[in-house]
Amino acid sequence: MMFDAQHNPYKAKRQVTYSKNGMVATSQPLAAEAGLTMLKKGGNAVDAAIATAACLTVTEPTSNGIGSDAFALVWIHDDKKLYGLNGSGPAPEALSIDVLKEKGITEEMPAFGWTPVTVPGTPAAWAELSRRFGKLPFKELFEPAIRHARDGYPLSPVLAFFWNNAAKRFKETLTSEEFSAWFETFAPGGEAPQAGDLWQSEGHAKTLEAIAKTDAKAFYSGELADRIDAASRAQGGYLRKEDLTSFQPEWVEPVSVNYKGYDVWEIPPNGQGMIALMALKTLQDDTFATRDTDQTFHYQIEAMKQAFTDGLHYITEPSDMTQNVSSMLSDSYARERRSEIKGEAMEPKPGDPSSSGTVYLAAADKDGNMVSFIQSNYMGFGSGVVVPGTGIALQNRGHNFSLDPTHDNALKPGKRTYHTIIPGFMTKGDEAVGPFGVMGGFMQPQGHMQMVMNTVDFKLNPQAALDAPRWQWLKGKSVQLEQTVPEHIVNGLLRRGHKVEIAAHDGAFGRGQIIWRDPKTGVLAGGTESRTDGAIAVY
């Protein structure tokens, strides 16, 4: 292994986990067990990932749902190849800047209600992954999720915390009729469930059964599509059955940079994985002797703020980008951006490359196949809209569109927006190292950078890499730190001109999972998030 298995200076709640036959790491124990069940039945890592993902729509609805989007990176050991799947959906054909302008919406896309709802891609992504790479029958993968939805399960502590926070916020702000089905589903009787309380949803169970029986066709062209269309029309939404029927997830070529001998892989735009790659490439020639110094934090933050500023300016549907991927990841542009980093914090601005509420899971099987999978509603429970009687909580990905028609990410009918959710993967030569990810909005590329550097530069094992204190760039010179960041780093960053904010809790810093594979022995080493109800299921 490429790390010191015994070294974890961060007072881990758990030690690194090892296995030979299979491993599933995610943020909820019941979902991890669902994936492990499929491995024990003879399924592969793809089967395990789908079962886990379906279960997470039930057991962690605070972060994702049946109406989510999804992305996947799939390593097939026999092919020695990494495959990418983009399961993000486009804006409805009836939605445009001009349509919103007529309704007085000119400054920003709404965050809640039907307006920011784009075509959900997750059910189609499940079906497509199963069709191409799965071993078990698609229907069988949904049995744990359906059982938990129908019979109920007790809420875990962190899940209950975020669930109750959302319910309190929604109760104050989402008061119109279009949100009533959300409260009926997730706050029955007017109150959100507490830790240890049983929660069940027959609507979830029936919807998952319909998806399972029809390879997701019910969601896009059948009975569920009809119900989504009817609810959208009744509440003044723009999503129609035609938008659902025409959707297909897209197989894409993953993009990568080499960072100190390791290839780090992401999904290409419209996802924000490019930001992590750009930041890493900026620092590829730097040597960091120690992780926990203000100098290390400073250079990481400065490289990330440059990359993020570029990403927010340029990343969108590839056909609408005014810069191309190769230019943004070029050696010359990385050197140019690195030359701009000095000893003090700077105000970031976009460069010119041409001149030079999410769940994450990782799965691995005994044959060397591995999956990095992420799905999300966005901003917790998403749009606040639930299709009545179905348990389908819809994402609000359209909120990221710009209403400035000159912006690369300007809203257009049928266009996919800049997307925050990103799965990560690492290889060395022609061998897989493994999947990794950190969920949590705009924290995700920042978490990816920190996980890679924790592993490659500082030799931390997967659990230590996740447990290490995190930072998050916010805007300008503002950076947020976890409470566990040592005081000497805080003071050092202040001296360098950073505007430092210490977070009240660790909920803002994402939730990650890592599985690394030893190519010689096939032994899997996994870490799971200590900031949530993380779990690793192995056998």
UniProtKB/TrEMBL annotation:
Keywords: Acyltransferase, Transferase
EC number(s) reported in the record: 2.3.2.2
Gene Ontology MF terms in the entry: leukotriene C4 gamma-glutamyl transferase activity
Chain spans, region Disordered: 336-357
Residue spans of biased composition, Basic and acidic residues class: 336-350
Transferase is among the record's keywords: yes
PANTHER family documented for this protein: GAMMA-GLUTAMYLTRANSPEPTIDASE (AFU_ORTHOLOGUE AFUA_4G13580) (PTHR43881)
Record's protein name: Gamma-glutamyltransferase
Native source organism of the sequence: Bacillus selenitireducens (strain ATCC 700615 / DSM 15326 / MLS10)
